Amino acid sequence: MQNDVQNSLGEILAKPAKKQKRIEVMGRTLTLVSASMLIITLASLLYFIASKGLSTFFVDGVSLSNFFSTNWGPNVSPDQGGPFYGALAFIVGSFLVTILAALISAPLGVGAAIFMTEIAPAWGRKVLQPVTELLVGIPSVVYGFIGLTVLVPFIRNHLGGQGFSLLAGVIVLSVMILPTITSIAVDTIQAIPKKIREASYALGATRWQTISRILVRTSLPGLMTGVVLGMARAFGEALAVQMVIGNSGMVPGSLLEPISTLTSVITLNMGNTVQGSTYNNALWSMAFILLLMTLFFILLIRLMTRRREY
User: Fold this and answer.
1) At a CB cut-off of 8 Å and minimum separation 6, what does 184 contact?
2) Under a CB-based contact definition with an 8 Å cutoff, are residues 100 and 170 in contact?
3) Of 84, 124, 263, 269, which has the fewest beta carbons less than 10 angstroms from its beta carbon?
4) Tens digit of pLDDT for each residue in 262-278?
């Protein structure tokens, strides 16, 4: 009788263990399959874009000096010395609009984050936080349409030029990436342990000294991560920028001149080219440059977050 009770109790205790083990095996299998699919997808994407992009040089015979020049004329006939596949003007345009937008948005975003976390009263934080999150979710076409309707006529009427310019692209991108930088900066500053602030006040530091010399320096890697993430979004943005920059194939000489970026050229011309042609492969080469820059931004973010210590 006692043995029967012990056997029955053993079976009852063994059942949850078996079920837990089965769930654990299923969980491991599911995560392994998901991770494998992610790695395969990423590797396939890298191989596809790299093979297409490098075909311009290894299959079509376009030289690096031709590609990294300012001569863009893929439809120019050989009798006129063409075709030309120079993408330098678009690369310069992408970097200019990204860097200038970051120079405007970075101090504004960090300042807004400091105000929301350290200065504003509780009700102000409750208002500003949802507004920032709302701005992050607005589609880029909305920003582009507002820029086309309001900003471009304003620049044309008050500053000169056609209105479609590098300045218009910089302002639109600055507004677009500002919520991203602000949100990440807010999360970074809020993550600083309270004991650091209390230690600073205990040593006699004022609130401004605590903010400028303790909080900003401590959260600098996180703040820079937000800026780099905003730059990555700005570098890959296509639609909103395309609507306000004028899409000129020339290197701009001033803020009021039209420009083109890598993304705007790709989206405007990819549908009008024949797959496998030199023109099409040149556009894939520009996409490959975008991919390399995105990977560079990701590696930079990883390097910055690795140094984040309190």
Assistant:
1) 222, 223, 225, 226, 229
2) yes
3) 124
4) 888 898 888 888 888 88
